[in-house]
Amino acid sequence: MSYFSLFLTSFASATLLPGGSEALFVYLLSEHLSPILLLGVATLGNTLGAFANYILGKYATDFALRKNYMKEKHLQKASSLFEKYGAWSLLFSWLPIIGDPLTFVAGIVRYAWWKFVIIVGFAKLARYVFVYLGFLAIAS
Questions:
Q1: Confidence class for position 65, pLDDT limits 50, 70, 90
Q2: What total number of domains does the chain contain?
Q3: Cα 67–Cα 120–Cα 64 angle in degrees, nearest 5
C-alpha cells in the first residue's frame, strides 16, 4: 500500500494540482522500504503525472481558449519560448511552480511525446535521486 500511495502522490504532484511527494518519499525511505523500488515508483508516478499535463496541453488548448481560461497572447508567448529553448526547458520540469506549466506547454506545441517522456523521466529520476542522496547524508 505504501508504494501505491507514493505512486498516487507522485502522480498528483506532477499535475497542475498543488502538492509534493518528497516528504512521503523520505518517510518511506526511513521505514526501510526498498530505495530502488521507491525511486522507480516515484519516478513513474511523477513522469505519468507530467504526461497528463502534456495530454491536457495537446487536447484541451482550444477548449481553454474558447472558455477564456487562457488568453491567445499568453499561449503565443509560452509557445515561442518553448520553441526557442525546447527540450532543454523540460529538464526543469521537476521544479516547483514552473515545472508543471512547462509540461503543459510541451503538449500545446505538440512536442514529440517519446522525447518528452525520456527527458522528463530523466529529470524526475534525477530529482528523486538527489532527495535520496540527501536522505542518506542526513541519516548517516
A1: confident
A2: 1
A3: 5
- Domain interval for residue 53: 2-139
Distance between CA atoms of 38 and 134, rounded to whole angstroms?
15
Task: For residue 57, give the C-alpha cell.
Answer: 496541453
d(CA 22, CA 110) in angstroms, rounded, equals: 29
pLDDT tens profile 16-25: 777 889 999 9
Q: Which three cell numbers stand for residue 90?
A: 523540460
Instruction: Supply 7's cell numbers.
Output: 505512486
